[in-house]
Here is the input.
Amino acid sequence: MTEPLRAFSSYFDWSRRRWRYVRWTRVAGAPLPAPESQELARLLAARIVEHRLRGGSAHLVAAWARVVSGGSPYTPAEKAALSAYLAGLDPGHDPEHLQASVGEYLWYACSVDDAVEPPLVRIEGPKFHATAPGGDGLVVRRDGQLFFTLWEIKKHTGSHLTRVVRDGYGQLSSNAARYLAEYSAVGQTVADPELARLYATLVESWLDGSTSAHAGVAVATSVAPDQCFSTMGKHFEHLGGTDPWHGLLAAVDGLPAFSRRVAEVLWTGL
Amino acid sequence: MDRALNPERLRVALGESGGLPTPEALSDLLADAEVRLFQGPHPIDPRLVDTAWYLHSVGSALESLDLYGPDRQRAAFQVAGHIFDLALADPGVELIDRLRFTFAGQVANVRGGLNPNAIAAYRWRLGTRPDRTSFFSSGVALEIGSALLAYDTAWLFPSLRAMRTEVRDAEQAWGFGLSDTAFGAAANLLQGSWDLLRYLVYGEVATLEAARTSLERAVTTEASANDLESRWVAFHLWQLGTDLQRGSLWAVLPPDTPPSVARAFTSANPRILTLWPPQVRLLDREREPYALDPNVRRLVLSLPTSAGKTLVAQVLVAEHLSRRPTGACFVAPTRSLCREIEQSLRRRMRFLARPSEVSTSDSLFDLIQDAETTVEVMTPERLAYLLRADPEAVLARFGLFIIDEVHSVGDPGRGWTLEWALSSLHNLTRTTDHRIVVMSAAIGNRANIAGWLDPDDTGFHYSSAWRGPRRVHSIFTTQPDWDKEAELPRPNSNSPERVSYPLHGVLHIRPTATGRVHQLRTTQPVGSLVLRRPTRARDAMSTAFRTTLAPLAVVLGRSGPVLVICPTKSEAARLASEIADLREGEGGPGWLVELASARLGAEHPLVRCLRRGVAFHHASRPSEVLAGIEDEVVAETIHYVVATTTLTEGVNLPVRSVVIAAQGAFATDGDFHEFITGARLLNAIGRAGRAAKESEGWIVLARNVAFDRSDFARLTPGEADLPVQSVLASGQALAELANLERELAASADIAVSRAGRAIEDFLSYVWYVCSLSDDPAGIPLEGLESFLQSTLAWQQLSRADRNRYRRVAQAARERYGRTPASTRRRWSRAGTSLASAAVLDGMSRAIARECLEDPSVLGTVDSSLDLVFGGGRLGLLLELPEAGVSWPRNQRTGQGTRPIPFDGVRLLHDWVEGRDIRDLADSYLAGARDPEFRLEQLADYITSVFDNFLPWALGILIGWVNEALGDQTEGNEVTLNRSLASYIRYGVNSEPAVALFRAGLRSRVVAVAVATDYLANRHSPDVSLRDWLCTMDLADWRGRFAPSPSELRALLEFARPAQTRVAATLLSGEVATIPIRATELALPDQSADLRPIPGDPEPRRVGVWTGDVLIGYVQAEHHAEVDAVIATGIPVSTRLQTVDGALVAHLQMIDLNDEGGAQQ
Here is the structure.
């Protein structure tokens, strides 16, 4: 399936903000009429399907697109396989988990589509076989030198946004060493020696506050305020590079309902 | 004390990185975490966890990136492993994080060279893991990885097979392979783990290569890049492949070793899939010398407790049996250790292709064991007897001699027996290819020992301080709270004025040898200190120091079993009761409580203790009760054992914590004598920290004095504290030598000298050496010199003292030459002093004469006992210096303490008739008022006289009596029953009961019950006891004989026909056929499974099942073998067939190559 990537991005208003030393990206989606909201859900679902169905299962992307566009139903084999590959994203799934997963894919899509940030070198996206909803992600970009941003990704549906963001700081701070140790072990096997060394020293760079280490907190929400992430620097003071703190607020009107719509699209015909 | 807390090691691990605690700060953080553990499970400082992940990433960096260097990476892993171990002690950690910590810690420990800690880290999961985990479930990668590094084959084989089936089914249903999809990392991890497991268990090199390929693919397949967890686990297993291969028995053993040798370790429980670093070094054929080198004929091993030297010995035995036609002789200092070694060897040897039977003989005098016996485990006394009786037969039968705990040559009581046996053996095999291996955890003078047994330095002498579990040392003292003085009421005006102060316990913990000492003070008093006014002298109303240890023991017990070593039996019993008092309502094992009630009486203090999970253990208890206690400590239903050092010297019973309640006791001279020192102390504290069960052991030395930091040195005896000194080089022996010299100067007869035990033993040795020569005058002088030089004593004596011994030896040799041939030969074989041999010789002639006068005295056991021991002979025997009788007294100490007179011969009759020990104590020792003390006294008497001395003396007598009878009756069958010695040792009066004891049963009550039942109910005398037992199953045995679980296992081993080869046959890939007892639901040609019957008490019967339908039972005779196979977890197919009208099961290992796997 080939989906025009910008088409997804064009549904949002992208703006760069800065609060003291924290820069953050506001990706705000306006309230949409039902057909457009449905289309946005379909676009995100398509990104998820592409993300999950790669390599030897890539032929199922076309099968999914066929069914979603009203074509012939799945064969039993397609149906069985897709049910497994799209597990955890079905409409019957625990809504909290579902919203968190959709939030992760929003972060993923925004990170990939971001045209302003330095060029993307590698992204460790939402987990397959996830052991817990929500979580972490790693983005490596090149701005002259390679640098990485370790992200904590949260969803905001009920409680105060500031509390969610604060939780994100706390979780990232508490778990960074573990997240990075896992990325570090597997990432150092890449062929590019510069990238391999970056991966091999992720934890060291983070704890040392090296210029290559950045912290990011992303929140998927329904409404995007104008101010956010104002205290981030305090939580990661040890990071010593230029602009080491990064926020991302991705707002989709009615995130809970939107998440459900994404799931319904994904599981159409299953 | 530990390497991981050493700031220098931490500095190496941490490198120059900022943002981390300094080495000193990290050492303090670790020490704090260690200290907090004493107070109970506790979360650890988050900085520690961050540091652990950092160090883990340092350790994990690929060598090709050239970032850190191998020493730093190894140090980083060791410290990381330590921190993850500490993190796991917090029960509040969520399951998924516990699994992450577990796997990360396992990786760190394996790559840090601390393999047993990787197994220990997983132990919490054994009780909580689901029977099956779906391939598609979250967390599956961590489950696989952690189980694999713990070698949990019982879970891995069925679970990985089931997951592989899931993958295959999915691939078939979906029409494409998973390995290049989002499931690819997990599928490749599964395949790689399966192949790695197969390599480790079966040794197929191709599967190791396949494993590496799959694991690498799991990490690098782009389609599953987002399955980070599977990739992370796969990465580490991939990187560990080399470490695992290096430690695998399949790689370590020479390539031409029969595969069944490695299988004996990779299949039998406990499974050994990889060796520990010192074991690898010992067996590494790439390095010279190495233990399996056929040119290495002398091996001196010095490894600490829990470093795996016993396993090395087992490998040597298995390898020897697989290559050479001779057997192996394994020597251990006590009969209980012999039994333990025999059982663990038997579990392995049943998988050997060469039919191998392992046995131990309680009898000194059975010259030849069953013909099938290839490995015999024996005490030094038995080896000495065999060497005296027929040295050529010993050398023909055994090609390998392994001597465990060789430091016991320095034991004043029994050391010489081992020294002369070993010296003789060494001298007799100087030019042959016999191999002698000596092992110990406590040899200070290793060079001396090596010089003794390997004077040409052509052997292999290896020592290592490596051990898996860390050890934390601490000292316990008490501290009065002087601010809380309380005046005690005076009952009358004559009473002294007393004041009381609460006593608090203080634990001084030193987590690092160089670091500061941390103190934990009890919040509540553990007793009180009472002083008299105005002298402020300590009053007897003060709490006994021993009593203050009870709360400490209870706290330590929350983290695992505790062993408290007391200097005396009475202290042990009291402290156990005090610990039990603090543990209200906590239950001990019901069956053991019942057993102890039956044997000791329901009111016995041990019964009350056992009900609360506390035991005291010393030699004065019925052996089946002691065996039960040992089993239940291992099973952790008994958390507290209070014992004397006889436990740590006699049984290998590791625990989490060891408390040394005192290093000595006040003797009758009023002085305090320390005797829990040196090797004895090392042996006791060596039990702290169970390898592969926990990564840390705690040692507490209780000191009833003010704290002194230098007391920590008491817990680390140095080499100078562990000298192994020949008995003949001791001051006592030299004093006795002087006595003899004086006697000789006065023209005394050297053959009847009573100059002292050590010198008499030396004379006996010379006598024996003389007997080795065919020369009528005894061995030539140079030959005698050669034997003298082969002793350890010769290494340690001064030139002058050697000459003194030499002169005495020459005098003995001359006396030998003047002694009639038949007499001197007989005395040389006795193993007693010459003077005692003369007494026994006279006694045997008298007995033989009486037999000839009236052969009917040999008719019954009773009349034979009267013949041998009547007429005052028992008293005469017990007066021999070798007897070492413990005479029963009326009370422990104090005025009026005296021996209790009783009829020893009558007691012997009652003992052999099987009368209950409690009845015997009440009948014969009523003069001791305290029933507990009465029982203890009788048990001590039975141990010293019936268990040890009399069977030995009687064995000599019987041999000589029968020789005399044979000479005088010219071959007519008039003989004294050779089994009398065994009847006395075991307290039974029938051959079947003796046979059961020899097979490992320890309960006299059960042995008598089985034997009596058998003799009364067998259909014909032609039906053997084994065949009769096999007409029943475990449930029948339970109903008829009320055996304990350990006795049932012994009965099952007894029921197993010699040379049964079910396990070995199956593992070699062939079909093993066993009869089954079918139910009416069984049909021929059915496929079936073998698994235990749910709900059965342990050991459970093994059922034959189709699905959930029980269609038969494995019969008792094959239970032990089939159970061993089931325990391996290795998949086995079972097919039923009718053969000659009876249903049999054909068992065969499933060919794992036929099962396929994920599509690649």
